[in-house]
User: Fold Right-handed parallel beta-helix repeat-containing protein from Streptomyces orinoci.
Amino acid sequence: MGIKWRHRAWAAAPPALALLAAGCAGTSGAGTEPTARPSASPARSVARVCAQPPAGPAKAPAGAVTVDPAVAGDLAAKTKSSPPNTTFWLRPGKHRLDPDRYSQVIPKEGDRYLGAPGAVLDGNKTNQYAFGGTARDVTIGHLTVQGFAAPQNEGVVNHDSADGWVIEHSTIQYNSGAGLMAGARQRVSASCLRGNGQYGMNAYKAGDPISGLVLEGNEITANNTEDWERRKPGCGCTGGVKFWAVNGADIRGNWVHDNRGTGLWADTNNNDFRIEDNVLEANDGAALIYETSYNAVIRNNTIRRNNWVEGRKYADRGDNFPFATVYLSESGGEPRIRARTDKIDIYRNTLENNWSGITLWENADRFCNSPANTSSGDCTLLVRHSDRCARPTIASAPLYADCRWKTQRVDIHNNRFLLDTSVVKCTAKCDRMAVLANYGTYPDWSPYQGERVAEAITLEQHNRWHDNVYTGPWKFVAHDPARVLDFGQWQGTPYQQDPGSTLDPRAGG
Assistant:
């Protein structure tokens, strides 16, 4: 997890974890369902998957193996005794595994699991995992998976992060840990990831980076019910979806809402993301965090009413860091790393009534081998061996530049930022756009001490706002949290930000 102005835990959400009533009706079958709260009707067409998931096949497809819910362990046993590339059809009803925590289904390559209408695979809070193993190209469709007790940072479906899995028209809900893990070339579409204890999906795989990940048309809601940031302050281990070392991801057409904490969080050496046509709303924390990562396109998203809980918490404590709904922490464009873009391009988004707007941040003390690097043991993608980032060589080119993740080449343009403080119910600190760093202090061998990084991120690293429309009483922060500017100062020397942009301070209340 990235450090903001200094070490801090993420805010705890209130006991009534927010669910949209339209998207989250029904009972969990796995504990008490969180309390609902109303949300405004989305302007953009959204993936209302959880309320009415499409029904699976009412009859077994030709050649399919039928699975009987009356026989405990029938699914795992028939999978074991069948050859690869078998289709399994789960009859209506509640299916269970053998009553051992390590009982799970181990698919073979190319297996397909299709649920009939009303088919549920239930872990009964006994089994840790539903589907595991390393078989490739497994499909799970029209199936509800619930009630599994995965440990922290582990997942229920695709527990071992096998490659090429397809999860479609499925509901993965009310599990501990992550509802779903990810492997390379995994596609998750038209599915409901709801009410899981830690993540809706944890895109993490030991070893090689995950590549070719697609999330399309899903509803991702009410995850982190176990409030891990409160249980382990500063762990950076929650979110609707968390991405680690993913190289190539398309995240489009999803409805990510009412999660406790962050909606979408890319953390540590991710690259080449396209985040487009999503609705990100009413998450307790930021809608999107892109941290110590590279090269992304963020466009055509509707982003509203995010970060009210966490932003207000720190503002009430007197914290002057500009907490924002889109937070780029030590992340930027890097032409030397292959991707579909060589910058972070943020455009044609609508941000409405969030707690602040976009913050570009760089921690001067966070770099390879620094004790302030909370991505422990990781180095940038530009340095193969992190032990090279040491004195005296780190003070000279190329390591001076390559040993730190930099917020650079960020292009923020043609967006609409709307703020009505009477809607957000704030009187201060919810109205910020920012580009800043801290004063570098440690370790004593750091070549980045003092204001070097603050000067670089603000004036030298090609971070630009332009051609945006602002409605409401927006303020702008540059260099450090104490330097709060009005629109004229932001546009003037030396910052020269937002040419071609307009601001109407009255319309936002």
Residues 65 and 88 are 5 Å apart (CA to CA).
